[in-house]
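Dear Dr. H.,

I hope your travels went smoothly. While you were away I took the liberty of generating a structure for the chain from your last submission, since the lab meeting agenda had it listed for discussion. I wanted you to have the full record in hand beforehand rather than looking at slides cold. The sequence, exactly as received, is reproduced here:
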Amino acid sequence: MRALVVVNPRATTTTERTRDVLLSALRNDLELQVAETTHRGHATELGRQARNDGLDLVVALGGDGTVNELINGLLESGPGQRAGDVPDIAMVPGGSTNVLTRNLGIPENPIEATGLLLDALRDGRRQPLGLGRLDDRYFTFTAGAGLDADVIHAVEDARDGGRKATPALYIRTALRRYFAQPDRRHGAITLEPDGSPEARVSGLGVVVISNCSPWTYLGSRPLRPTPYADFNAGLDVFGLDSLALVPTLASVAQMATRRGPRGRHVVSLHNQRGFTLRAERPVPVQVDGDYIGERDLVTVSAVPDAIRVAY
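The corresponding predicted structure, in token form, is as follows:
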């Protein structure tokens, strides 16, 4: 079996020891190539090359961003791509949060995750994974617009300036960006489910789209804005039609419960096949915790059984 291991040396918890143990273990079972990412988008280039070279497997050693880029490279030919036409993917967590691997049940310890991967390879174990797609970009566990993406953008800027990604950094940044929102009582985003214009919801200040639950983790604490989201179903949506202080704080507190947010300002949609987001002005957008710029129109769709995962 021919495989490529893609290592992100800048990922928060990726170490040389982890990389060496992983490569030593995999070389006993695989004909192995290794590549380190050097710039943003590099993993997408490597995933595209792995597909074109007809490799059997690509292993990501890094965080959610590395996995997202790889999957977008593997599936770049479009939403009609069949999972059997591209290399399978495997993941060994090396980022700060590792939302996808935690939701899949892959151990956080990279050595244990490597052991699970070796068992899957020897047993031929593969699981299909449904994804989401925002315009031309696939996402594995989340996408978002408005305040959610604005916070991620600010955190990325802080990390580029040498700050370490910690729960405290996210909390401080979220508070600062919340109070910087231009109009907290009337959001700019309108959500329109496919085929249901009568179900249109406007005035949203934040939209979180989820492919699984939890949506993310604050340290060890799971946050669940969409507690019923599932890889094997469509996409779930959480939104707020007011960013006034009381409803916003209430929703954030309720995310830490198993029931998730509720209340008259909460918009909650389950098992959606697709929808459109329109904005009165360009708003920040993110996929899998990666800020992708400002948009005033995006289309979002669920892509069932998009790729196979070895774990």
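Two observations you may find useful: The mean pLDDT is 93. The CA atoms of residues 141 and 216 lie 9 Å apart.

With kind regards,
E. W.
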